[in-house]
Amino acid sequence: MSSASADDPRLYRLASEDNIRVALQELQPGERILVDGQWIQVQDRIPLGHKIAVRPIAPGEKVLKYGCPIGSAAQPIQPGQHVHTHNLRSDYLPS
Fold first, then answer.
1. How far apart are CA 56 and CA 44, in angstroms?
2. d(CA 95, CA 60)
3. Residue whose C-alpha is closest to residue 55's, from 70, 36, 27
4. CATH number, domain containing residue 71
5. pLDDT per residue as tens digits for the range 6-33
6. Disulfide engineering: 44 pairs with which of 35, 49, 73, 82, CB 3.0-4.6 Å?
7. How far is CA 73 from the centre of its chain?
8. Please, what's the b/e burial string for 25-38 (b: 16 or more CB within 10 A of its CB; e: otherwise)?
9. Which residue range forms the structural domain that includes residue 43?
10. How many domains, the chain?
């Protein structure tokens, strides 16, 4: 793998087209993570197994996990932010 596509070892990439990564350990605000060779600052506490945005996600834009939409952004989500029920709306289940 080239350094241009490197991800921090604390993150798990499920599919190449995903706009999130899954935290393999808890991440703290202010920490820096490497995503696709670019540094991103963690904005929120990201619990183990939770999603973190790795690029800007506009309101209404699909959040992709495993290469599939799991819902839509309910508000703007910036790189380094926790992606969870407070900013992600299910397109499949009533919220």
1. 15
2. 15
3. 36
4. 2.30.130.110
5. 889 999 999 999 999 999 999 999 999 9
6. 82
7. 11
8. eebeeebebebeee
9. 3-89
10. 1
Distance (Å) of CA 30 to CA 7, 33, 43, 45, 88? 17, 10, 6, 9, 22
39-66: per-residue pLDDT in tens?
999 999 999 999 999 999 999 999 999 9
At 5, is the secondary structure helix, strand, or coil? helix
Q: How far apart are CA 53 and CA 5, in angstroms?
A: 16
Q: Assess contact for 30 and 38: CB atoms under 8 A.
A: no
pTM exceeds 0.85 for this model: yes
Residue whose entry in the numeric block shows the structure tokens 């910036």? 78
- Residue 30's nearest CA partner among 15, 45, 19 is 45
